[in-house]
Amino acid sequence: MTLDQMILGAVILGAIGLFLWGRWRHDTVALAALIACVVAGLVPADGAFEGFGHPAVITVACVLILSAALQTTGAVDAMTRAVLPSKAGPFVTLTALTALAAFLSAFMNNVGALALLMPVALQIAARQNISPGKALMPLAFGSILGGMTTLIGTPPNLLVSSFRAQTEAAGGQGFAMFDFAPVGGAVAAAGLLFILIASWRLVPDRKRASVEGFETSAYLTEARVGEKSKAAGMTLREADRVLEEADAQIVGLVRDEVRIPAPSPYRKVRAGDVLVIESDPEGLNSALSNLGLQLEEEVSTKVEEEPDEGKQKREAEEAEAAKTPGDAPETETLAGPKPDAAAAHEIGAPAEEAKDRKGRDKAKTEDDKRKVIHSDDVLLVEMAVAPGSAFAGRSATDISLRSRFSINLLAVSRAGNRSRARLRTMKVQEGDVLLLQGSPEQLSDFAARMGCVPLAERSLRIPSPGKAWMAAGAMALGIAGAAFGLLPAAVAFAAGVLAIMLLKVVPLRTIYDAVDWPVIVLLGALIPVAGAMSTTGAADLIATAMLDYVAQGNAVLAVALILIVTMTLSDFMNNAATAAVMCPIAIGAATQLGASPDPFLMAVAVGASCAFLTPIGHQNNTLILGPGGFKFSDYWPLGLPLEVIVVAVGVPMILLVWPL
Asked: 146-155, pLDDT tens digit by residue?
């Protein structure tokens, strides 16, 4: 073993260790590995960033943009409406939904396909009275299986194709668009059949914390700010800091009969305001006493008996307070509708309605409270934190959720368990389910900008039929150009992107928002590192060790070994990173045996696309973690036998279609 091989081996092992650890993002680890190789002289400095111009990287970026166009124009919604049966049992409905996910994933980003179909799956689960996980896990696994059937279905396939083009046996040609279909299609068909039959028994029956499970309305309390209250004259930010001691927060404000669901933290509190406080019952008394507040219902009873002259004096004082300079502007809140009788009781009623409320039972039912929260201008919505979300690893305070988006974070569900403590400073994780309160426009903007997936039901419709057809045509243009060899894949899909830009299918300012930049950096950084494995001979060394000590020179066992090792690594680290590490080893094994590299590379492609044992192995597994109420160990009961089926079907099919 040479010094270069030893150094590269240390870099690769270190990178794999960091991938498995998960403390650093994949793109950060990949970039660190690239820099280490450049410093050590294993990768030429002038070629360090050639990977970012690699055709595989360009193709991935273009496919992501085209996938986003299909989503935003409603083309996928139209297909969903056409395919899903309107009246059928749970088995038939979920079979159609899972098959649709597999088909869509063959031609678009599978995370995007899953995100679009998740609300439909949750709606079906609720209608058929089954646990959400029993609908979500088959959907996620089906979308993963569908991605292995085409060149563009998943980034590992593009990487495998690019490595094939570098081999002498291939004559500089990578795999074509549908070269993956015979093997990938057979594995996907067998896997889908097993999933649909066995998932009913093997997927754990978990009950996640839904909107009802969060019990948010039970902890919303209205408190009146008196003239002598400590809160009078404070900003809402200052009042919130005081309430933190009682683990409470202000989620709304009522002033002059106008409801403000997510007020600016810089707005000053006035005497007579009603603060809507979110707090546990245990901390409510402390929250009220810290600011000198009174429960609104108690105050309303007193107001009812207030003499006319006292009332006139108070109204005059409030009118004078409204003229106090330095208060935050209120123009944005005056458009809010006045609360109705039910809302008045929940969010703070005016004094003249106190008589109508007098005999009302204080213990309002939770259904009544939800009617307030689900009013026309304020919605309560669940969102899943998608992999790569800008919110992941940060808290509501870190992203200034209240002041930036005018949204309240009311609760967080993690692995099916509801968490409410210190919500504003709690670090959100991928797969968490958030309970958010705000207007439809604000919630939609937040979801788009922060990478969260709404879990609410939504109608299946086409916002813009003409643009949907254009988006579908642009994707078809790229697929046809690559499939028939008219253009290289990267150029064909770049032409599709150009078409949607020229036709303005989606706003031009959002084009590059669709690109998953961490994946692009990961691929661009690891391609030169993988090249160093070949140039230093490290890949041949590892392949020789695997063949001598495990496969013992048997080519069939070597193909199976490559598939199993790749699949195992993919369960714990990014699939593109796995493919980048394993492709040089696969080519080295083929060289040592004097066999064609095609079956070995195809084994890498299949293995890298089959991560079913853990929630971290694939982005789709992570995305269903919170909505399905799953735990880390809930994936292997269905995933382990599925991976056995992948090996049992994949190895014979690889050897049949791609002979040694």
From this structure: 999 999 999 9
